[in-house]
Amino acid sequence: MSIQLDALADLMKGVSAEELKASFFHHLKYSLGLFKAEVSTHDQYMALALAIRDRMVDRMMATEARYEAAGAKRLYYLSMEFLMGRSMGNNLINLGIYDQARAMAETLGLDLEEIRNSEVDAALGNGGLGRLAACFLDSLATLGMPGYGYGINYEYGLFKQEIANGYQEEKPDHWTEKGCPWMLERTNEACMIPLYGYIEHATDRSGEYNPMWMGWKILVGIPHDMPIVGYGGNTVNYLRLYSARSSENFDMRIFNEGDYLKAVEEKMTSETVSKVLYPKDSFEAGRELRLVQEYFFTACALRDITRRVEAKGLSFNALPDMVAIQLNDTHPSLAIAELMRFLVDEKGVPWESAWDITTRTFAFTNHTLLPEAMEKWPQPLFERVLPRHLQILDEINRRFLKKVALRWPNDPVRLQQMSLFEEGPHKQVRMAHLAMAGSHSINGVAELHTHLLKTKVVNDFYNMWPSRFNNKTNGVTQRRWLLKTNPRLADLITSRIGDAWITNLDHLRELEPYAEDAEFRQAFMATKLENKTKLAALINRRARVTVDPSSLFDIHAKRIHEYKRQLLNVMHIIHQYLCVVEDGEEPEVARTYVFAGKAAPGYWAAKQYIKLINNLARVINNDRRTRGLVKVAFIPNYRVSLAEKLIPAADLSEQISTAGMEASGTGNMKFAMNGALTIGTLDGANIEIREEVGKDNIIIFGLRAEQIENHRANQSYDPWDTYRRDVRVRRVVDTFNTDLFCPQEPGLFRWIFQTLLDQGDEYFHLADLPSYIEAQEKASRLFADQDTWARKAVLNVARIGKFSSDRTIRQYADEIWNIRGYETLSPGEEQGKG
Length: 834
Description:
By secondary structure, the chain is α/β, with parallel strands linked by helices. It folds into four domains: about 1-70 and about 85-120, no CATH class; about 75-85 and about 120-155 and about 165-330, Glycogen Phosphorylase B (Rossmann fold, 3-Layer(aba) Sandwich), CATH 3.40.50.2000; about 335-465, no CATH class; about 530-735 and about 765-800, 3-Layer(aba) Sandwich (Rossmann fold), CATH 3.40.50. Helices cover about 50% and strands about 15% of the residues. Strands 1, 2, 5, 6, 9, 10, 11, 12, 16 and 17 form a ten-stranded mixed β-sheet that branches. A six-stranded parallel β-sheet has the order 20-19-18-21-22-23, with helices on both faces. A three-stranded antiparallel β-sheet has the order 13-15-14. Helix 25 links the parallel strand 19 (about 590-595) and strand 20.
């Protein structure tokens, strides 16, 4: 039965606290089957979440009807990660029923904040890549645009991080253990996905080569939809995540023979595909599982997308006019080969037509400048898992290199550099090359990043197709990262300039005059102090460190990686510590250094940095000479809900990556949006942040990307020169050759001394340390003058409007996807717009 638009319009009305209470009790009784007078906080969370979800489903149905009536072109965003965090607070705010929920809870003697805090973070991502995807989904819905995410419904996240004797320990992150009330399972839309098998070489009736993919194993993809509500509640799109199931629960013959465990082995093996985010790929089975994961979710997505097109009875020539597919980094690039296989093998579309359809449908976002992050697969593994797709890649490559040879005749080196296959003892498939060859748009995520892609990283491809390359500087959603995360600051802003900034962040510019308003600055800093006081309590609980909220909160929160240079931060702290204990110098302002972040399980150096930070904290925090002057804390298990506590409390935001190595960063945007000053290199989006907030309101230091590139090209950087020339550098580095920070584990950090001096200091720590020390001294001087600091902090908030993901999505929509927003209209108006 079709649902009429005018009937759906009734569902868009607001909900009262009484209606929400009735729905809450309904779900306690009928969804959870609870009859007790007292229920647990988790039960309260589940019942309230289901009550909220009811409203979201109503609006999701209305949204779908609106898109259908308008014949809307749709965007499908394919990503291995969607770091959603907690959903309840965000959904209440975007639906506009937060106050009703709080009132309902109060009438029942419940604490809404306690209920919200019982929600477990959805562990569907790892870092910036996944959080960006989550921000984009929020913006698409808020802008009324038909945009949907596709990914994997991981049962386990990356890992829960615990700290034991200073070392990172990885524990299972079974985030779905108690169920996820936001998910809607769609078993009726399951997808059948072939894997493995072999190619049977044959010819068709006309004698043309007609390969047949035979003997495959089938995986079943079960979609689960998570509704994504835009601000105001008018539009609800969804994130579709696939769980893997076996096509056969067990082999009945084996079961009847009495081997019960073996009978269910196939089911258990199949379901590992959606078990865990990023299985460790340092061994063959882990690499194979990652490849299977990437094919599984992209193949599921394409079956779903093409099924919708077929249901309309249209030719696949119309696919690019109906659909835009964005590849979020290289992980989903197998979708290009899969669409070609589908069109050529299953639908009989001629190759050239299929390739034209494919390239006009796909667009590719590159997120890295690190060569090791440009994904590659060993050809033998690829052939075993996806034999037909390897044939397709061979043909794509043959035709592609033919065009390269026409463009640059007699240039075999260029052919090798651009080939989809990397030759050598172990031939590999280059997934970034496939993504670029098969997409009509290739974008970087910050101006510097895109420039380096064009001129350095994939210069050959830029020269081949300059019109395909474009920049889309990243952004973050202010609904999550200011309105929800920092409600007191949000209220302060709204009290002065109104609430238009919530859907158009450029309105924050209206806050600029208030930087000169003493009363506003005082209120602004009082808000910051309240957030710091809350964080101080959390640090005491989680890290067992007592800190002073009035001290300068210097926060470094991101994935632990050598290029992100947590080590550089540590070296400055060591410098400050030595100045206190050896030179008797008291710092200009008291400092609290906060670290948070996970190291990949197989990344030994990064895990050693975590140990170093924790040992450093133990030494400094227990030294009477630094009492009241310097504190260090590492907060374990960094995730979205922890970031929401750290970011509003930061005075100083550490964005100190080696210049030319960070694609963009989004943490830098979130911290500035919440009134932190950035200390950073001219890297990633830091450059554009400086352009927006003004060079006097950001603290920049260190070598620029072109200087580092020149040093590398000319092999002109010798860390020993800096070590010998600067006594500050020498004194800090020498501590790693002692047991000052590892008295119980002698020699533990000597490898750092060797890495910095004898192995070339690949990430230019020593080259940048002197200017970093001076930049930190500047930060202390500024913070000592609270009035000046407040002006700069206010201006950071006022001038951050460019870095809304709404702006980013509008650019993608206008310049790549050719989609638009659809407001809530009456049925007649909607038909007229179509």
